[in-house]
Amino acid sequence: MPSRKVDIAGKSIGDGSPCYVVAEIGINHNGSIEIAKKLIDAAVDAGCDAVKFQKRTVEVVYSPEELARPRENPFGLSNGDLKRGLEFGLKQYRDLSDYCRSKGITWFASCWDEGSVDFIDQFDPPCYKISSASLTDDNLLRYHKKQGRPIILSTGMSDMKIIERAVSILGEENLVIMHCTSTYPSRLEELNLNGIKTLKGRFSAPVGYSGHEVGLYTTYAAVVLGACAVERHITLDRSMWGSDQAASVEPQGLKRLVSDIRSWEQAKGDGEIRIYESEIPIIKKLRRVG
Q: How many angstroms separate the Cα of 133 from the Cα of each of 108, 212, 228?
């Protein structure tokens, strides 16, 4: 089934277009604007197309009991202290938006509640990302749809029935579906990369891959299998404090990932069997005809 194309900030996503590479900063900034800027720098240096953040209204997304749960962290002794400490506000997002603009890289966010959609919308984002955790929140899906922007949808923790319901709400136009396994880090035997082919056969929307595994080669494999977009969490150092750091890619690995994806795009060709001009001297020198 030929996929539709989705345009994000002037770049086309879909079969036949270069793979769209998203560096997921998420919460790996650990509440530091300076770390966030270094992660943006790493994404720019690697040649990524975009960086992504996460935005939550803490009191909406988490219950009072969950926020009160004891959890020692750099911001205090409760889970609420941690969640609030990791959230950037208006001043920080203005700074980051300006910084991304100065570096020439697109940014957007996954919004976990309607208020966060409104918050990010003031920055005129080129698209929205819907996280796997929000896939079954029908009201949130409808609220995203109402904004009229392209949507990137992750599909972790879901079977086909769940995905089909989400897609029926969002529609397949201006949608990119990301095959995903929501464990950090993901086990190889649970990546199910052939799911990319399954999703491509079921939907006309472009299909990509959001990975949380250790290593890079499975992400290359996802592109070979037809993923038209890839997303990986990035970090300055996988040993840093934070729940997502161990399943993230460090700057040198990110640079290698993008470089090797671009090399594959050059090498895959169009499938037509031909003689290249560079082979003609070899034919004259070595070929035998009987």
A: 18, 14, 22
**Do 223 and 19 meet the contact criterion of CB atoms below 8 Å apart?**
yes
CA distance 12 to 49: 11
* Residue 248, domain CATH: 3.20.20.70
Evaluate the CA torsion angle 143, 121, 33, 219 in order and state its sign.
Answer: positive
Categorize the per-residue pLDDT at 1 as very low, low, confident or very high, splitting at 50, 70 and 90.
Answer: low
> What is the span of the domain harbouring residue 80?
6-286
Measured over the CA atoms of residue 176, residue 11, residue 95 and residue 45, the dihedral's sign is positive
Beta carbons within 8 Å of 180's beta carbon, 6+ residues apart? 132, 154, 155, 156, 209, 210, 211, 212
Number of domains in the chain: 1
The reply to whether 1 falls in a domain is: no
**Does the pLDDT at position 179 exceed 90?**
yes
Q: What is the DSSP letter of 274?
A: -
Task: Give yes or no for residue 2 having a pLDDT over 80.
Answer: no
